[in-house]
Design goal:
It is a single chain. By secondary structure, the protein is of the alpha+beta class. It folds into two domains: 66 residues, Orthogonal Bundle (Arc Repressor Mutant, subunit A), CATH 1.10.10.10; 158 residues, Chorismate lyase (3-Layer(aba) Sandwich). 24% of the residues lie in helices and 31% in strands. The chain is built from seven helices and ten strands. The strands form three sheets. The chain has a six-stranded antiparallel β-sheet. Strands 1-2 form a two-stranded antiparallel ribbon. Helix 1 packs across helix 3 and helix 2 packs across helix 3. The radius of gyration is 23 Å and the shape is elongated. Keywords: DNA-binding, Transcription, Transcription regulation.
């Protein structure tokens, strides 16, 4: 990949610390104005160091600056890439991932991997407070935005609401919207978000490698009468997500615990 309108090369390093900051500033400007697009690879380090007329050590200092700003992602053995846009995961709202993404200006593509009535596993039955012998709707899907499959999600819906959702096209309708269309109201959700690493089973559905950092969201959604309606687990690529919260004493309660 050729370099694009880089700073003119100079004779020698010419200023050490100031020089690597100049390079970082120049590359940052080109990333922000779109000359390097999200997810695109930057030129190789040796090519960049030659174009800027600096040593590899100085060039790497500049790249560390960009990495600290969240503008690039360095993948050992693969290269340096412009960081993808970050989804702000809004803790204070009760909406679907797809709705959150669209409201932030992202085009979202949902792929349904499976949607079927199944016997509820023991772990899910305990979360929904139902018997293990009962069935529910298991909905598995992947969300893609900014050109990457970034979110893998499995939702379990209890009966009798599950039976009403069998024919819904979840590629274009969110689960919450489908429930609302059936006259089912949701009132609140309890959610835990924890850091993890991407396991092999989920990695095959997302555009990243096994072992990379992810966020795992476990959510239980309740009806107004306190019935646990939906048990949901979402695995989100850590490189594409940041968590935000609008805090108010009466609207959001956060509990911070070491992991």
């Amino acid at each position: 990949m050729r370099t694009r309108d880089l700073l003119p090369t100079t004779d020698g390093e010419g200023g050490g610390v100031a020089r690597y900051r100049e390079i970082a500033g120049d590359l940052a400007a080109k990333i922000r104005d779109g000359r390097y697009s999200p997810g695109e690879a930057l030129p190789a380090q040796r090519e960049l160091s030659q174009a800027y007329g600096v040593t590899l050590m100085t060039l790497r200092q500049a790249l560390r600056e960009l990495s600290a700003e969240g503008l690039i992602v360095q993948q050992p053995g693969k290269g340096t890439f412009v960081a993808p846009p970050h989804l702000a995961y809004q803790l204070g709202s009760l909406r679907s991932f797809a709705d959150d993404l669209r409201d932030q200006g992202h085009e979202v593509r949902t792929t349904v991997i499976s949607c079927a009535q199944r016997r509820v596993p023991a772990r899910i039955a305990a979360r929904l407070r139902i018997r293990e012998t009962e069935t529910g709707l298991r909905l598995e899907r992947v969300r893609a935005f900014a050109g990457r499959r970034a979110i893998h999600q499995i939702s379990w819906v209890r009966e009798p609401q599950a039976d009403r959702l069998r024919d819904v096209d979840f590629t274009s309708v969110s689960l919450y919207a489908a429930l609302a269309d059936q006259g089912v109201a949701v009132a609140r959700a309890a959610e835990t978000i924890r850091p993890a690493t991407l396991d092999a089973d989920v990695a095959r559905h997302l555009d990243d490698d096994e072992g990379v950092p992810v966020l795992v969201s476990d959510r239980i959604t309740y009806t107004p009468d306190g019935t646990a309606l939906v048990a949901d687990r979402a695995t989100i690529l850590g490189s594409m997500m940041q968590i935000t919260a609008d805090r108010a004493a009466t609207t959001l309660s956060l509990t911070w615990r070491p992991t």
